[in-house]
Amino acid sequence: MEQLLQSIKIAINEKIFLKDPESSALGKRIVEHSILLIDEIGFESFTFKKLGDRIESNESSIYRYFENKHKLLVYLTSWYWGWLEYQLVFTTNSISNKTEKLAKAIEIVSRTVEEDNAYSHVNEVLLNKIVINESSKSFLTKEVDQENKSGYFVIYKRMVNRLEQMIKEVSPDYRYSSSLASTILESSLHQHFLMDHFPTLTNCNKKHTPGKFLADLVFKTLNKTYNG
The domain that contains 198 carries what CATH number? Predict the structure, then answer.
């Protein structure tokens, strides 16, 4: 799968950026070091000036790619969901058993991320940490409805829709398939956050992973047996 991913460009809504960062070496450096810097100091403390100092480039050069740091965060989270979507599609495509397919999908979206080296300018491990800790800041804004209409969150919504369809295949009569699908994605992030910061508030750990918890939750909710 790594070789296949190397030939695939993660398609991001063009309204999110002013210039495609994938189109130049500087753009890729902006993406690469924004991930490193946000992971290091947090999104609140992150500025384009600090990023410019890190990559030894003028702050104005970063503004040629992104209007503001909010748009950059939306770009990074969108890239992450697009990257995860490809893994989900490629890994589950050949699974014919509907229950096993849903179980594998839950595992993929909730597992601890490992760097796959398919994209040299993106550290997927650190980007995953950013999504866990910071992604809610990309949509908890006054502009969320307009940005949603503009398609900023289309990849995330597509991920939810893919999970929803898998749930419907397992249990066609279950009436809350969309709610359950979005719960899988959000609960995965939340359980990883709790493991890292509030471990007494979750039963999840390295042995009892968020994926195992979510599979148990989903299949019991659907009244289906899965011994994964």
Answer: 1.10.357.10
Positions of the chain with pLDDT lower than 70, given as ranges: 1-7, 225-228
Q: What pLDDT shows up at residue 228?
A: 60
- Please check whether residue 152 lies inside any domain of the structure: yes
Residue 227 lies in a domain: no
Question: Tell me, what's the pLDDT at 117?
Answer: 73
Q: Model's pTM, two decimal places?
A: 0.93
Q: What is the pLDDT of residue 100?
A: 96
Q: How far apart are CA 200 and CA 67, in angstroms?
A: 40
The rounded distance, in Å, linking the Cα atoms of 205 and 212 is 10
Specify if 181 maps to a domain: yes
Please give the Cα distance from 62 to 26 (Å, whole number): 9
Are 57 and 48 in contact by the 8 Å Cβ rule? The answer is no
In a domain, 194, yes or no: yes
Cα–Cα separations (whole angstroms), residue 171 to 97, 176, 224:
13, 10, 8
